[in-house]
Specification:
Elements lengths: L1 H14 L3 H10 L4 H4 L8 H9 L6 H9 L1 H4 L6 H23 L10 H9 L9 H5 L1 H5 L3 H14 L1 H4 L2
Helix pairs in contact: 1-2, 1-7, 1-11, 5-7, 7-11
């Protein structure tokens, strides 16, 4: 969640969004994952209930959380750059971590765009990552895939200590 939060802040800066709000969404988007990983149709619903208990039942973060797991919950469709940024960057941060963990030093600092792109082409590498979901950055956000990957990588590298990589 930290990686997604850092990447979301960088995307907000690139796309003219509210960095604090976007980063908060990145931090919250999988808050209930440990409780719901075996029941995908419940993922995000727990977080939405927690927020409702705190009086947060409306607004951009609530809607974005509702759209985050729409494939399983059908709560809301994706709308706007913040929601599309989360949709596309969520899978990418995991892919970048997988690339880093394959390096001898297991450090983000030594990961380069070229090594990510090489692994990207190898469909057997991190096969569970939905590359098509990430590639929507071009159509939905107007950011070419290599630039999108590089922006996310830099955000993660700039915060490598918090990520433990």
């Amino acid at each position: 969640m930290y990686a997604v939060g850092f990447a979301m802040r960088a995307l907000a800066e690139r796309l003219g969004g509210d960095g604090d709000m976007w980063e908060t969404l990145g931090l919250l988007h999988d808050a209930d994952w440990e409780e719901t990983k075996d029941t995908p149709n419940e993922h995000t619903k727990h977080t939405l209930r927690w927020l409702a208990d705190m009086g947060e039942t409306d607004g951009p973060i609530v809607h974005a959380l509702m759209s985050h797991n729409r494939k399983h919950t059908g709560l809301a469709e994706l709308e706007g750059n913040m929601e599309w940024a989360l949709e596309t960057v969520d899978e990418l941060t995991g892919f970048i971590v997988a690339v880093a963990l394959m390096r001898p030093d297991k450090k983000l600092a030594t990961v380069e765009l070229s090594s990510i792109m090489k692994k990207w082409k190898n469909k057997a590498f991190a096969a569970a990552v939905e590359r098509e979901q990430i590639a929507q950055c071009e159509e939905k956000l107007g950011i070419p895939l290599p630039e999108f990957i590089n922006l996310t990588l830099k955000a993660m590298q700039d915060n490598h200590e918090a990520l433990g990589l």
